[in-house]
């Protein structure tokens, strides 16, 4: 298929430009470095408690960093994927070949996704070689699931960046849109969700329990928060406990939120629903970007 040719060329260009090797080295340092601390500094990452797993501290520590680093790298890799070729004129040459505009967008998404996913996988592989020999079977499955979720996060933000690039007229416009979305999801979304829920409690008469449910609903729509809470589901005893972590930071959370949410988790906040929401952050921007790109005059 034509989109496969675009994806293959995009990936090969990244290999030739050494993007793959630079990112791989970065992720090896980022992921394997904390794992090596277990041996060099004697840090105990090996709690064998069934609810947490042997890699819980590693996962909890790395989750906060990957939730920032991976989206940034995905945006850098993807934001100019189409606009740069559009500004340089090579896009018209590409479209003169048997490629449709949809093939170009889909190929760019797949090629850039591979550019991000492969180095992440390599980084986790090296970290796994350090951690897994000292872990149990259950901990290995959690570690692998954490790696897969991190790859998914990277692919989601590649889709976002390429979708924005496809709908933009210039590199500058694509960069502003991508960076703005990153700042919104990483810095401002949680605060806005809390203020909206508090305002509903204060001015609309919703109960405290409803306030926290509204805040939770607003938070899990955010792709970064969705990723974090799915990772938390790997290391906490229940999905409810994982959702409660969205009301705190690292190993600390708001006890008022835990009390208000109770013990029964509504279906809309379960892992499959949140995973579907995360997937939509990939599908919708790519589709919208492709639709806009099909209609623009190059």
Automatic annotation (TrEMBL):
Membrane spanning stretches: 20-45, 65-82, 109-132, 144-167, 174-192, 273-293
UniProt entry keywords in alphabetical sequence: Membrane, Transmembrane, Transmembrane helix
Entry keyword Membrane: yes
Highest taxon, organism lineage: Archaea
GO molecular function, one term: ABC-type transporter activity
A Pfam family per the record: ABC2_membrane_2
This protein's GO CC annotations: plasma membrane
Record protein name field: ABC-2 type transport system permease protein
The organism of origin for this protein: Halopenitus persicus
Lineage: Archaea, Methanobacteriati, Methanobacteriota, Stenosarchaea group, Halobacteria
